[in-house]
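pls read this stuff:
=====
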Amino acid sequence: MRRQGFTIIEMTVLVAVIGGCAALVYPVVRSEAMRGHRAAAEEQCRQIAVGLERFLADREGQREPIPTDPRSGKRLTWLRGPGELPASIPFAEGRKAGSVDRVLRERDPHAAVWKGPYAEVVSPDPWGHALVVNLDGLVDRDEHTWILSAGRNGIVDTPANSEEIRGDDVGRILRRP
């Protein structure tokens, strides 16, 4: 008479086969998830770049190309989005920071022309960090204006004067003619 059920050896073989399959599939799934996060961050940076370009086009010919905070009226040298700030922002030390959301969504009372809002709601990058924007390129033609996500590690690896994105950062360079 044959008993019903599985032996311990059969169960061990089954668990080993399932574990082996999972070990083969996991890196592929993780790679695709990372690719999806990077694509989402690139799209967020693109949307901010388009909004900032429209904002700056409206301010063309004004004396100060650098945006001011719509609430405080202070000139801003870099911007941030909502979310946790990245661990390191090399171009932000000692500089006045403002909100990307405020500049692109609220009317600047000091601007003669404002045709906004210039962007939809700005959200944190896929890793929960704030997007950051360096505005040095608006004043110094040798610099670039960057829109960055600090990437998975949460550290901005790209210096303001770099001509390429570095480390695991994701972003866009805003070039002005």
Notes: The beta strands are 78-80, 97-99, 132-134, 145-149, 170-174. The longest strand covers residues 145-149.
